[in-house]
């Protein structure tokens, strides 16, 4: 095999590999000898078919496979001989003028990882904002539990007021008097003032009495899930079946026992522990962002454009998804477009930080153990049902990219924890509001990162033809008995016909980064980690353009 470098500019590399016809033919001969004992042909005993007849029968297919195998080995040898560290999957293409029996010229294009300078981690200084759990906060949560567990007393001799529970039968009709699907129900409980139903529904029930029949005039929200009802006027004919008032909410031992606990003290302890966990999560998020800011400020080096593009595509896809849930999707998309360059800079920063964290992790022996990996796989498999769980586990075990996606967030967190231990940390007590404000004041996406394998990155193995990624089983959402289109059940749960109030999505143009900076679904996140099997996988098998066509027979 001959190798000629055709491009060496920045992080971009290109080569032309020439694989001789003699080498390809030698591979065909070796394959003919291997399969000949298994070939059956009329007139010959099993295993006695002459090699020349085997070649005649299967020559085109064997030649195509031999060419593909030679290309794969040639790319692997190129990466090894040149000590290349591909940033992403190399592009491999067989020249269009190739014909069977000739030398094969193959073009290989790739971007390599930069030489990451040794990160300075000895002078890191961080402030840890801690939020104590006040008794008042625990009491507030206890009161919420008590309110959720409140009992209702019949009050059939009074007119309904805000805060009462009114049970009704109802029939929903469009403006032309036609009942619509999902708009009819019986014995639906409506807590007046809860805001769970479409505007106007609860308000018009204030003042009704037991046995009263009434027509409610409402208008479905513009963003309602059922398009044929969105923004349209409608009526609901209701019959009042019951009126109840809330009994006094008590915080006592019975409340704890109704929740399946032994005592009120145990309930208070669980609530306090949960709040502490939430505060610790916020504290970690703030510290992590400050840590990444320090790393970013101290390092500036070229990063592979292909990795930046992949990261940007991930960010943009998320933003587009969020924009579709805005009240004005078109305006949200326009705002995104105006900030496209800013998001591309954010993507570049994320890639650079990921490379830095990976360099730190590898230099300091940070790794994800097999036991931890098994736990990650088991946890991820819980989203599937029945046989799909085992299929998912097998898929992750066989597909290095999938394993890398699972490993990446944990690996990054372990590197961050290592840096926390190295840093000089000072504690300062703060309120939750101050901590949340400090987090919100920072650009969430800008602090996101992805860890990347520096030294063992090779092209990933291609899945066998026909191998399918297990599909995620559709999760069933529980619907309480009697739930239907007119209850607080979200539209997507009730056939999109309920007058349920649709929650508004967060603003797409101002996303807030999650605590874990690595986005598991990111194409760049799949390149993660501390010398994983993803990095050691065999090269992706390139398909020869012309030869592959002849192999179909």
Give a written overview of the molecule.
39% of the residues lie in helices and 16% in strands. It is an alpha+beta fold. Among the domains are: 2-111, Alpha-Beta Plaits; 152-246, Roll (Chitinase A, domain 3), CATH 3.10.50; 264-441, Trigger factor, domain 2. The strands form three sheets. Strands 6, 7, 8, 9 and 10 form a five-stranded antiparallel beta sheet that branches. Strands 1-2-4-3 form a four-stranded antiparallel beta sheet. Strands 5-11 form a two-stranded parallel sheet. β7 (165-174) and β8 (179-191) form a beta hairpin. The two termini are 28 Å apart.
Summarize the structure.
By secondary structure, the chain is an alpha+beta fold. It has helices spanning 21-35, 51-81, 135-148, 253-258, 264-298, 305-323, 329-338, 340-363, 370-381, 387-398, 400-422, 432-440, 547-550, and strands spanning 2-9, 12-19, 91-94, 104-111, 125-130, 152-154, 165-174, 179-191, 213-219, 233-246, 424-429.
